[in-house]
């Protein structure tokens, strides 16, 4: 069995409103689903993606009011990649980041690709990566009503970086349990530390890649605003998810069992270095309860919590999208 690539990455924000403004107005992503955390209905769960929220294009955020800052460190998902079409797009984004005073490190190269490391206003660590030479998993399609021209728009998730104190247990689960392939390495981000190891699944490429950074000089991360909660991988359907769940349960790793998230079905488990993984089905997707034209404009609630709408809407502060 092979995953089809990355499905989504979920992170934390202290302000849904400021988060919405940055990811839609500056990054030009589409808010394809405005809903709530199904395990804690008082907080927003926002999904930013391509034009219709294709699997592999979703960067999501839980709003956690009052959450403190992140103390960066080990045992963490420490970087989220975002794909753009080509090197010309990378040049466009350098200028846009300068225009909007976005904290970035300029253009550099990683594994033969042009990249820009940058941060959102809460210190969320992000990377734009060029698909100029990508031959792997197909990208999504940026929204044509975005604030960013389609040809330069964000087309999906790129490589996700894990930072861990010991490579062996993480590599063991990626390769021997999850069927990732080790495809190479890249120089360390910090002098004196081991190379960053690179793993791919499925068709490979920027949309199916995990980078593992080993840091022997860091304490365990204390998560807060701007930190990542989990990374999810794509499985085709319920049958495939059940097969993966059975395989992972035999490893006796802490897991959730299969959970119905309405827009997809999910299975969560934690590997030995503390990284939380999710396996998510491609179907049914975000068009199941809203038409494409108005995705993300009103609060969407799955049927099993729709009866709480009045109570939930009374708690949530409206965003500058349609209610």
UniProtKB/TrEMBL annotation:
Cited InterPro entries: Extradiol_RC_dioxygenase (IPR052537), Glyas_Bleomycin-R_OHBP_Dase (IPR029068), Glyas_Fos-R_dOase_dom (IPR004360), VOC_core (IPR037523)
Domain of life: Bacteria
A family per Pfam: Glyoxalase
Keywords: Dioxygenase, Oxidoreductase
GO MF term set: dioxygenase activity
Keyword Oxidoreductase among UniProt keywords: yes
N-terminal signal peptide: none
Record domain VOC: where: 5-131, 156-282
Database matches in PANTHER family: RING-CLEAVING DIOXYGENASE MHQA-RELATED, RING-CLEAVING DIOXYGENASE MHQE-RELATED
Protein's name in the database: Ring-cleaving dioxygenase
Originating organism: Amphibacillus indicireducens
